[in-house]
Design brief:
Bound molecules: uridine-diphosphate-N-acetylglucosamine
Structural class: alpha/beta
CATH superfamily of the largest domain: Enolpyruvate transferase domain
Radius of gyration: 22 Å
Number of strands: 25
Helix content: 25-40%
CATH class of the largest domain: Alpha Beta
Strand content: 25-35%
Distance between the termini: 9 Å
Number of helices: 14
Shape: globular
CATH architecture of the largest domain: Alpha-beta prism
């Protein structure tokens, strides 16, 4: 099994190119099931979750060619597709459930494996099913599979989500764009990745517009066009490297990004004392002086993202005083805490709240991670720790970070994979 070895305390300088967003690529790939026209996707991140989604779509029947050199994908879809998504492809990547909406809209039926739980929480799909039922789907759960059908086809309706969910919003949109008539979705998630999926769908010919902050109007259509789309940058990857730069950077530059999508993160970093120069499409992080403690709670966008919670905790270890993190999205997302403690961190957790005392000097250790963002927080901790840190189970990192060690090495970090 592969490991990462990091020698800490090396100052970073240079520039980091941020990849395309994994969480935008996955629903956009699922959206291509709606059409038999050719789709070209640019700026796709070459990460394991994207490969798993491609494998699932190929199983269903799409013809997909990836250019790894150009980070592009070409998708053609001429034949009749299967309407099944099997367990072996959904057990490692929950976003596979996003094929449910488009398959149901196009073929009036779908059988999709229940994705099951994962390290960070139970993660049910009741809100996905709630939305599809509103559009007229009949749903049964049998033998670990969701059996969905709409013999007369899906029909537009009002979907008022009782709670905000990224995936359920995506599945609802992907079904409604091809349903008969008008759908209004309210209390929906508005993450930049969903906004990018909407831009993609509009280019494809879908009729979809925001009519309120969390309210979308969709008029169903089956007339789709061929299209080219460049995936938005990965704001979570950017946030991760901004924190790395705040921890050990001398001068680190990030270009071709849109700072408007990370306003909450920027505000927090500034409040903590991180020195930066901010432009519309560029950020430079300078060597930080003394950092200040902070209170953060994770929330749906535009709030602070749960996917950066583990990483900001590491920055709080370098800040003077007591910081506090309240995790509001997932019930079991402090799995990185025991590992950080093994490196010397002073963190106490109580239910969904973590109290972090700083500043503290970490020391390298052999550590292991349980999910994607927890793994990367250990890499960040390793960058500030004395001596050598060995990070095990890095297959988690490969699910969502493209060329992590290459990007850090280019900025002079001492990091290698063995
Ligand atoms: C997406 C992201 C993930 C991110 C999360 C929250 C992708 C591929 N993944 O995951 O990286 O951490 O948003 O920003 O984009 N819930 C229900 N019932 C449902 C669906 C969700 O109770 O049917 C709950 C979840 O258990 C969780 C909360 O709602 O507590 C938010 O989950 P959701 O927004 O759906 O996350 P994902 O789409 O799975």
């Amino acid at each position: 099994m592969q490991k990462l070895i990091v020698k800490g305390k090396k100052r970073l300088s240079g520039s980091i190119i941020i990849s395309g967003s994994k969480n935008a690529t996955l629903p956009i790939l699922a959206a291509t099931l709606l059409t038999d026209k050719t789709t070209i996707l640019k700026n796709i991140p070459l990460v394991q979750d994207v490969y798993t989604m491609v494998k699932l779509l190929k199983f269903i029947g799409l013809n997909i060619v990836i250019s790894k050199r150009l980070n592009t994908l070409k998708i053609t879809n001429k034949k009749k597709l299967k309407t099944i998504a099997p367990y072996n492809l959904l057990k490692t990547m929950r976003a596979g459930v996003l094929v449910l909406g488009p398959l149901l809209a196009r073929y009036k039926k779908a059988k999709v494996s229940l994705p099951g739980g994962c390290a960070i929480g139970v993660r049910p799909v009741n809100l996905h099913l709630f939305a599809l039922e509103k559009l007229g789907a009949k749903i049964k759960i049998k033998n670990g599979y969701i059996h969905a059908s709409a013999t007369q086809g899906l029909t537009g309706n009002t979907i008022n989500f009782p709670a905000i969910s990224v995936g359920a919003t995506e599945n609802a949109i992907l079904a409604a764009v091809s349903a008969r008539g008008k759908t209004i979705i309210s209390n929906c998630a508005i993450e930049p990745e969903i906004q990018d999926m909407i831009v993609f769908l509009k280019k494809m010919g879908c009729i979809i517009n925001f009519i309120g902050k969390r309210k979308i109007l969709i008029i169903g259509t089956k007339n789709f066009r061929s299209l080219n789309h460049e995936i938005i940058f990965d704001r979570i990857e950017l946030g991760t490297y901004l924190i790395a730069a705040a921890l050990v950077g001398k001068k680190v530059k990030f270009v071709k990004i849109k700072s408007k999508f990370i306003e909450t993160e920027i505000k927090l970093l500034k409040k903590m004392g991180v020195k930066m120069k901010l432009e519309k499409n560029k950020i430079i992080i300078f060597e930080s002086g003394k950092l200040k403690s902070a209170n953060v709670k994770t929330e749906p966008y535009p709030g602070f993202p749960t996917d950066l919670q583990a990483q900001i905790m590491v920055l709080m270890l370098k800040a003077s005083g007591k910081s506090k993190i309240t995790e509001n999205i997932f019930e079991n997302r402090f799995m990185h805490v025991p590992e950080l403690r093994r490196m010397g961190a002073k963190i106490v957790t109580k239910n969904n709240v973590a109290f972090i005392s700083g500043p503290i000097n970490l020391s390298g250790a052999e550590v292991m991670a349980t999910d994607l963002r927890a793994s990367v927080s250990l890499v960040l901790a390793a960058l500030i720790a004395e001596n050598k840190t060995v990070i095990n189970r890095i297959y988690h990192l490969d699910r969502g970070y493209e060329n992590l060690e290459k990007k850090l090495k280019k900025c002079k970090a001492i990091i290698s994979r063995v």
